[in-house]
Hints:
Layout: E1 2-10, H1 14-22, H2 24-30, E2 34-37, E3 44-49, E4 52-62, E5 66-71, E6 84-93, E7 96-106, H3 108-129
Antiparallel strand pairs: 1-7, 2-3, 3-4, 4-5, 5-6, 6-7
Helix pairs in contact: 1-2
Amino acid sequence: MAEYRTSIDIDASPETVFQFLVTERGMTSWMGQWASLDPVPGGEFAVDIAGYPARGMFLEVDPPRRVTVSWGFAGSESLPPGASTVSFELTAIATGTRVELVHTDLPDAEVAGHIEGWSHFLPRLVRVVVGERLHPDTWVPRP
């Protein structure tokens, strides 16, 4: 199993950024076309991304510092719902918020696709948090 780490800086407070990680409207503004989120430990985490149903549950919700969810895809044998873990750690910095993403327990065959996905979606998070209205996302993972 592998781990992927990356971080981004956003010109907004941790409280503002946090809302984009725990609300359906916030989440789908930067990632996915549909979401059903119940941001309490054990609550549902469901986001449809480019036709892929990401499913899991909220494991940790510590406003405005941390969100951790279990992650996988309905119907996937290599990464079923809840098989991996995604954590967003929000830290206040002089220019706003640093978001550190850590995705753990990824099967080796899933690492490249998830790096590609997070590399696409995290810049979108930066843009929407600061008020940019994005066009609907047309990204699809490479086969």
